[in-house]
């Protein structure tokens, strides 16, 4: 049964908004990125999602394609974002089968909980390679097509009229808010996300003159995602949700709507920005659940019973 639209996209957007456009997404089989792509496809785009797991990536692609009759969604598995050649092959297939690339979502990421004492150099490097190098490789493999798309879809600088062909030539990097204040057990991810932020800003400056926009979406705590499940034990979730400024955690729909905003005409003059979608969560004192800071660090105890302590794409 198809996922109800209300779960992945609000009713604010008009049908056909991204007709005849193509979105390329790394990490596209993940909970957040698949919702972003699903919204784009529902609004007219075709898509190519890539990931490490072949079966999962192909299955999610087929599922996303059900949101709109005639939609084309390619799932390319066995892609390692740490290797630019792997991404280039996926991009080549996307362009061959779908005709080009207008939008890119760089969403592949790795995360796990570990203190600096627990964190080996290889583990640290693994997250940097997936997040930062993977984002850079995604950019390098797709930027020629984004430049081409931007040239076709530039906003008229005198009348401010959007191109009759719609928008294109835009990239979104998926980051986080962990590095804004610093987070225990997240040094590796904080460094990686800060690097992604800096990369996006550089893209906005260097490729802006060619019409390409580059922005970041920084999700806060999002329900039913691996990130929240890994970082917050089940028995602490109720108290955590209650502590949020809006009294709830976010949904994938919140992130998908932000994506549509940045990729549509509404985002035509938004570039080099970080769009934080977290309900003001990062501005609160926060907590480590039942662990009291800094006692849990001074104890020297290793993090125990944390779900999914492995890097994933």
TrEMBL record:
Superkingdom of the source species: Eukaryota
GO MF entries: 2,4-dienoyl-CoA reductase (NADPH) activity
Keywords, sorted A to Z: NADP, Oxidoreductase
EC number(s) given by UniProt: 1.3.1.124
Coiled-coil spans in chain: none
Classification via SUPFAM superfamilies: NAD(P)-binding Rossmann-fold domains
Gene Ontology terms: cellular component: peroxisome
Catalysed reactions, semicolon-separated: a (2E,4Z)-dienoyl-CoA + NADPH + H(+) = a 4,5-saturated-(3E)-enoyl-CoA + NADP(+); a (2E,4E)-dienoyl-CoA + NADPH + H(+) = a 4,5-saturated-(3E)-enoyl-CoA + NADP(+)
Record has NADP as a keyword: yes
Pfam families on file: adh_short_C2
Any one GO BP annotation for this protein: fatty acid catabolic process
PANTHER family: PEROXISOMAL 2,4-DIENOYL-COA REDUCTASE, PEROXISOMAL 2,4-DIENOYL-COA REDUCTASE [(3E)-ENOYL-COA-PRODUCING]
Protein name in UniProt: 2,4-dienoyl-CoA reductase [(3E)-enoyl-CoA-producing]
Organism classification: Eukaryota, Fungi, Dikarya, Ascomycota, Pezizomycotina
């Amino acid at each position: 049964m198809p996922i109800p639209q209300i779960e992945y996209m609000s009713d604010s957007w008009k049908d056909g908004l991204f007709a005849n456009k193509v979105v390329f997404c790394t990490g596209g089989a993940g909970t957040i990125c698949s919702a972003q792509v699903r919204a784009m496809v529902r609004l007219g785009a075709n898509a190519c999602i890539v990931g490490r797991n072949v079966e999962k990536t192909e299955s999610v692609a087929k599922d996303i394609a059900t949101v709109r009759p005639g939609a084309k969604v390619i799932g390319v598995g066995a892609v390692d974002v740490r290797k630019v050649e792997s991404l280039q092959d996926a991009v080549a297939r996307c362009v061959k089968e779908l005709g080009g690339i207008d939008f890119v979502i760089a969403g592949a990421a790795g995360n796990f909980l570990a203190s600096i004492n627990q964190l080996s150099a290889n583990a640290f490097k693994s997250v940097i390679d997936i997040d930062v190098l993977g984002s850079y490789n995604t950019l390098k493999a797709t930027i020629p097509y984004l430049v081409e798309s931007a040239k076709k879809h530039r906003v008229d600088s005198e009348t401010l009229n959007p191109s009759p062909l719609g928008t294109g030539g835009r990239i979104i990097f998926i980051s986080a808010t962990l590095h804004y204040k610093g987070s225990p057990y997240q040094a590796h991810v904080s460094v990686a996300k800060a690097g992604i932020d800096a990369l996006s800003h550089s893209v906005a400056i260097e490729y802006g003159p060619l019409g390409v926009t580059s922005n970041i979406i920084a999700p806060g705590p999002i329900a039913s995602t691996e990130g929240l499940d890994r970082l917050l034990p089940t028995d602490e979730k109720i108290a955590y949700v209650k502590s949020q400024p809006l009294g709830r955690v976010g949904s994938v729909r919140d992130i998908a709507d932000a994506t549509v905003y940045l990729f549509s005409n509404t985002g035509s003059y938004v570039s080099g920005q970080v769009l934080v979608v977290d309900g003001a969560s990062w501005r609160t004192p926060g907590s480590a659940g039942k662990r009291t800071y800094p006692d849990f660090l001074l104890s020297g105890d290793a993090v125990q019973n944390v779900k999914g302590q492995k890097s994933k794409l």
